[in-house]
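Quick one, probably user error.
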């Protein structure tokens, strides 16, 4: 009951509204084009990906959503992640904003239907991988910290057999497909900046885990790649 009460606090409600309403609907809010099918597809994918992943994660790890909902309150968050974490979150939310602004100015020609269908498939695949990581990993916090209070240990099952940070990998796949779905060339520039930030966060998080989480260095020896199999 305590965790349930925490999950419906005013701060959490505001966060959900920002993620699920303001950012996901921003292309239509900016342009006023409420008949934009690609923008509706994007909004529905964001909503469904968020809701389904959280419902499944809560069933398997009832305490995980409380951990994620109150990520800003943890005092043991790594200092560098107090900067990088919010930047990554804001960056992901800015992708549809950039797409909406570009559509309002009508500066880009649309991508073909085939490209948009592929983009939808890649977004779904990205959300599926990221959701699988969330569901599999009870310690999938919203911030980088060693969760001694929750008995954190190495998770090597599910998508963690393929790469060490599958949640980030899935997110990147969805981010790079979003500009194509929303006909935005400038959103690719924003995605590139977001990718740099996420790679930096991944590298720092991985180093932290190797130095401070027992067994992680051995796990890293077995699963060699952080984000992209065969690359890095």
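Nope, works fine. Designed sequence:
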């Amino acid at each position: 009951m305590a965790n349930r009460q925490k999950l419906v606090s005013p701060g959490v409600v505001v966060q959900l509204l920002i993620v699920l309403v303001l950012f996901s609907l921003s292309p239509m809010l900016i342009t006023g084009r409420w008949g934009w099918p690609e923008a509706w597809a994007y909004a529905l994918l964001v909503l469904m990906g968020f809701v389904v992943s959280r419902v499944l994660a809560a069933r398997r790890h009832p305490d995980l959503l409380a951990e994620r909902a109150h990520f800003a309150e943890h005092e043991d968050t790594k200092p560098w992640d107090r900067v990088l974490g919010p930047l990554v979150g804001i960056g992901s939310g800015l992708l549809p904003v950039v797409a909406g602004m570009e559509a309002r100015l009508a500066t880009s020609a649309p991508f073909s239907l085939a490209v948009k269908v592929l983009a939808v498939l890649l977004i779904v695949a990205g959300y599926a991988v990221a959701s699988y990581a969330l569901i599999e990993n009870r310690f999938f916090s919203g911030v980088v910290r060693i969760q001694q209070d929750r008995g954190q240990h190495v998770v090597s099952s599910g998508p963690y057999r393929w790469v060490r940070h599958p949640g980030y990998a899935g997110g990147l796949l969805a981010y790079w497909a979003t500009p194509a779905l929303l006909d935005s060339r400038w959103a690719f520039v924003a995605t590139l900046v977001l990718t740099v930030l996420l790679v930096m966060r991944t590298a720092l998080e991985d180093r932290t885990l190797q130095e401070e989480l027992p067994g992680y260095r051995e796990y890293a020896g077995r699963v060699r790649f952080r984000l992209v199999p065969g690359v890095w």
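Residues 186-212 form the longest helix (27 residues).
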